[in-house]
Amino acid sequence: MANRREEERERLREAREGRETKEDKSGKRRVVAVYAVAGAIGIAVLAGAVSLIASSGGGSDGGGSHILQLSGETNGYSPDGRAGTEVSVSQTTNMKQAAKEADCVLRLELEDEGHEHIGKGAPTPNYGTSPPTSGNHATSPYQQADGAYSEMPDEKFLVHSLEHGRMQIQYSPDLTEEEQLELKGLYDTMYGGVLFFPNEEMPYEVAAATWTNLIGCDEYKGQATLDAIAAFGKETWGRYGGEPVNAFGLKGPTPTEPRS
Predict the structure, then answer these.
(1) Is the dihedral of CA 123, 126, 132, 133 positive or negative?
(2) Phi and psi angles of residue 131, each rounded to the nearest 5 degrees, phi first
(3) How do beta strands 117-118 and 137-138 pair?
(4) Which residues of 144-176 are buried (b: 16+ CB within 10 A; e: fewer)?
(5) How far apart are CA 243 and CA 260, in angstroms?
(6) Alpha carbon distance 198, 126 (integer Å)
(7) Cβ contact 186:66 at 8 Å
(8) pLDDT tens column, 145-198
């Protein structure tokens, strides 16, 4: 009788140990699975962060768009990472002659429409020129960052960047891809402190603006237009607006020292 009780206890003990071993293994498998899922999520989050940094410029040169986050905000507008066509960089310093040869109008030292800072969500002011060249604008840090964009940012962000000596090169989206890439190629030679984007609202095919200065070209005429924009940049970039052009940082060649 005693032997049977001993045998029964031994059988129950072995069964209990078997269950505990099985549960222990199952628990370890669950822990491993949890860590595997957590690791996969962590990798995905890291990859997304890296991608976001790369697309936004990461505080430095944003690839083909040359977006410099140190100079402001992208404000959610998409970068233009297209590779521009290699173009000849004009060495002319005669802005008026270059504008005349390209049939572009020069409007220099226009009325200063104001420097008041307004909130990011405030209505965009009605500017006196198209494209605008001065006026009240969104407060820091919402000035549009230096770079090329595939869509036109809100004008109140653009005007603030002009106040800091920037130049903006703008083109009609109706231009052919070939023509747009030639203009992008010019921008690529002088992207430090410059913005580049389409503008379907202005009355020109191509225009460039600095604070209180504007060159507008009714028709894109290839190299002549490129030369006129380059000469305008050499003459007016970094010299107007009342704020130092390097206040938010600069990187790369500029209109006064373009890359040939």
Answers:
(1) negative
(2) -70, 160
(3) parallel
(4) bbbbbbeebbbbbbbbbbbbbbbbbbbbbeebe
(5) 28
(6) 19
(7) no
(8) 999 999 999 999 999 999 999 999 999 999 999 999 999 999 999 999 999 999
